[in-house]
Design a protein that fits this description.
This protein is α/β, with parallel strands linked by helices and 760 residues long. Helices cover 45% and strands 16% of the residues. A hairpin with a 2-residue loop joins β22 and β23.
């Protein structure tokens, strides 16, 4: 492609603000990108333009939200400047790029080049063993909670020594009955280092300490990365912020892209201040605002703007859409969470039967527990669905078992992998033997591998005879795998490991059950993944080793492993970030749930909850349905709810509200016979005039002079006394139920034809 053709391709289809951002070739710059404004295209074309203007791809570091996005962007850049040129870009997530850098610089931080990357489950397993070793109560020192606290400390650049001497932290830990947190944190760091392992947070912490403690190393990478681009800058935490600014300090060619209105990860340590204060950090920066939304209808964009305008801490912008006006946002009140699920699934069923693709539909919720009733309703209707955030492929037990062998192969110090496979498949090495081995290793500062591979140590530890020989045979087998790993690619090695360990044969002992069959298929799919990885790396001229593959998969997320199945998507709003769907349902819009109860009284937290709602609204391209329930089953009991304050912040003229004092069908979107007439709520709409009368021929029911009852009527019952009709449920003309709130007996559901009530 000629230079003129490249330029034409780069700027083709860009609007004026997008083109200006792409043309900017140097200096600090902030791209404020509203939802659906084409920021990925701008980042992609800006990188292509840098290369087209003589910048070496070796000198570009681009930090993206997901590795999948990076691969897609690199492919697009390659189509313009050539795939071989694009392959030299350093492009990926913070964790993947700095894991790559740390492999190169491992010696400078005292870690092996083959360091293991612990996932969350690995970290929590290690923490659990530390807590057990200290004799602490794991109901107070919950591994998940402890891991979260350690992760937060690392993201805030608090090292164990800093943590231990901070009086406020010490007081907090004492108040929470966890006074030994600092000790656990230090032991966790020590154990990770001894095992030659890093968790996700360590990939950033070690990069920071590498640059802080090695000025020459920092200077080398400052010169190397002449241009730095950071996507989703609003979601960076303190340590990411520090690393980026250390690298950019020398040349100041830093471009950050993001949307403060979509900063929703403070619980992971993200700091919205990073994007809000960028102009203070770089007073000479150029600011570009991408405000045209290409995703959603005018109605959705305008409603989202109206909502987010309530936030005080934000960068002013006017996001707009030139697409169709679109339908109004549907707001539906239901009586319970079960009815809410039926309402939502009722519309989905109607839409799917009408020819819509399930994959174009998503149900979003604030908390994972909300998915249960939705899943039950979807299963009942026979609608295929996928829950994001469930057990991912690489977290399945059989996959973790295989990967533990491979991790131990490249890093003998990995104690967690050692314990996982020392007796899998079963080789008569029981828990008692492993405990003896672990006790001796810990007492003498050794790794389990060092202890297990030494006959004299085994004997001293009380492991003799056949048991000791089986342990030695195990270490000898893994040593052979390590020798093979230096000679063959990842796929070939995996085949050898599976053949030698007979894992598939072990799984076949349970092949008669559906679960057993699935496990075998999963391992076969893992083999396919290895083959695909090797083929792709050969084509790219990349590394095909086992270490390269393990690094690749250790950093995968749900967003990287999403599938193309034609099914409805269920996920939390947090998980939906970066995705889009034609039709979106947001459920559980109740104060105390969305926004959460802890956020309502805290202005800063409430603003983040509002940003989260903004993200949810802007996932939709054409249709939005928002629902809430008057009653919800939570924590083992049914509780009353009130609608979310966010619903009241949406412009009335853009909403179609039903159920709030008007007639609403349980599935008012498709054919149904059942109707629910709910209690009037004057703050939203006028009281409905809809009435029901006893069925003809059913003379047992008392009636008013005109023979009709309405929601809101005060009635008298011969046994329960006076009450108010809250809702009228019409299943069939002969099957009408009244939900009545009696003064002295509470809420009762009565069949109209037998109710014996009269209007007062």
């Amino acid at each position: 492609m000629t230079e003129k053709q490249q330029e034409g391709t780069i700027f083709e289809g860009l609007n004026a603000p997008q083109a200006e951002a792409v043309k900017c070739l140097g200096g600090p710059m902030l791209i404020v990108a509203g939802a659906g404004s084409g920021k990925t295209r701008v980042i992609t074309m800006r990188i292509a333009n840098l290369i087209a203007n003589g910048v070496s791809p070796y000198g570009i570091l681009a930090l993206t939200f997901t590795n999948k996005a990076a691969r897609e962007m690199k492919t697009r850049i390659g189509s313009i400047v050539g795939s071989k040129v694009a392959s030299h870009l350093w492009m990926g997530t913070f964790h993947s790029m700095f894991a790559r850098l740390l492999r190169i610089e491992a010696e400078n931080i005292g870690m092996p080049v083959t360091f293991t990357i612990y996932d969350t489950q690995d970290s929590q397993t290690l923490i659990k063993s530390i807590i057990k070793g200290l004799g602490l109560d794991d109901k107070i020192y919950k591994p998940k909670t402890v891991h979260g606290m350690i992760s937060s400390a690392k993201n805030d650049l608090l090292f164990p020594a800093d943590y231990a001497r901070d009086p406020d932290i010490a007081k907090r830990d004492r108040d929470q009955m966890r006074p030994r947190m600092a000790e656990i944190y230090q032991m966790y760091v020590n154990e990770c280092r001894k095992a030659g392992a890093m968790d996700f947070d360590d990939l950033l912490i070690h990069t920071y300490t590498l640059f802080r403690n090695n000025p020459e190393c920092l200077e080398r990478y400052q010169k190397r990365f002449a241009h730095i681009l950071v996507d989703e800058y609003q979601d960076t935490n303190r340590v990411q912020y520090a690393i980026v600014n250390m690298l950019a300090k020398a040349n100041r060619n830093i471009c950050v892209v993001g949307d403060d209105s979509q900063s929703i990860y403070s619980f992971r340590g993200a700091r919205i201040e990073n994007i809000l204060n960028f102009k203070k950090d770089y007073p000479d920066c150029q600011v570009f605002k991408l405000e045209q939304n290409y995703r959603s209808t005018q109605t959705i964009v305008s409603a989202a703007n109206s909502l987010i305008a309530k936030n005080i801490n934000r960068i002013p912008k006017n996001v707009f859409s030139e697409g169709e006006v679109g339908e109004k946002i549907k707001i539906r009140q239901t009586n319970s969470d079960i009815e809410e699920a039926k309402t939502v699934v009722g519309e989905i069923s109607y839409r799917v039967r009408s020819g819509e693709n399930p994959e174009d539909i998503a149900i979003l919720y604030r908390a994972n527990f909300q998915s249960r009733v939705l899943e039950e309703a979807l299963r009942h209707e026979g609608i295929p669905y996928k829950v994001y955030g469930g057990v991912t492929f690489y977290q399945r037990k059989e996959i973790k078992d295989v990967l533990a062998y491979l991790r131990l192969t490249v890093n003998h110090s990995d104690n967690e992998s050692f314990k996982r496979v020392i007796n899998y498949p079963k080789r008569a090495i029981g828990e008692t033997s492993v405990s003896k081995l672990e006790g001796y290793a810990n007492a003498h500062g050794m790794t389990l591998w060092e202890a297990a591979s030494n006959p004299l140590v085994l004997e001293t530890a009380g492991l003799k005879g056949a048991t000791a020989q089986r342990i030695l045979d195990f270490t000898a087998m893994v040593t052979e795998f390590s020798m093979q790993a230096e000679k063959v690619d990842a796929a070939t090695l995996l085949k050898g490991v599976l053949d030698r360990t007979k894992i598939i044969e072990d799984l076949k002992t349970d092949k008669d059950s559906a679960e057993g069959e699935d496990r075998i298929k999963n391992v076969e799919e893992l083999r396919n993944a290895f083959v695909t990885f090797v083929d792709e790396k050969v084509e790219e001229g990349g590394e095909t080793s086992l270490s390269a593959y393990l690094t690749d998969i250790a950093l995968m997320t749900d967003a990287d492993t999403g599938n193309d199945e034609n099914c409805v998507r269920l996920m939390t709003v947090h998980a939906s970030k970066g995705l889009e769907f034609s039709r979106v349902f947001i459920v559980g819009l109740e104060d105390g749930l969305f926004p959460g109860s802890m956020s309502i009284l805290d202005p800063v937290s409430l603003e983040e909850e509002r940003r989260l709602m903004y993200v949810a609204l802007t996932r939709a391209k054409k249709s939005l349905t928002l629902t809430y329930a008057k009653e919800r089953f939570r924590n083992g009991e049914t509780t009353m709810s009130i609608c979310s304050r966010f619903l009241k912040e949406l412009p009335e003229e853009m909403c179609d509200r039903q159920g709030e004092g008007r007639t609403v069908s349980i599935s008012s979107f498709g054919p149904t016979t059942r109707r629910v007439i709910n209690t009037p709520k004057p703050r939203f709409v006028p009281v409905s005039s809809q009435k029901v009368a006893p069925s003809a021929g059913e003379g047992t029911a008392s009636s008013t002079p005109d023979g009709e009852f309405s929601v809101g009527d005060v009635v008298a019952h011969e046994r329960f006394g006076d009450g108010v009709i809250e809702s009228i449920i019409v299943d069939t003309p002969q099957d009408v139920k009244l939900k009545i709130n009696f003064n002295n007996f509470g809420v009762k559901l009565l069949l109209l034809r037998f109710a014996r009530i009269r209007k007062k």
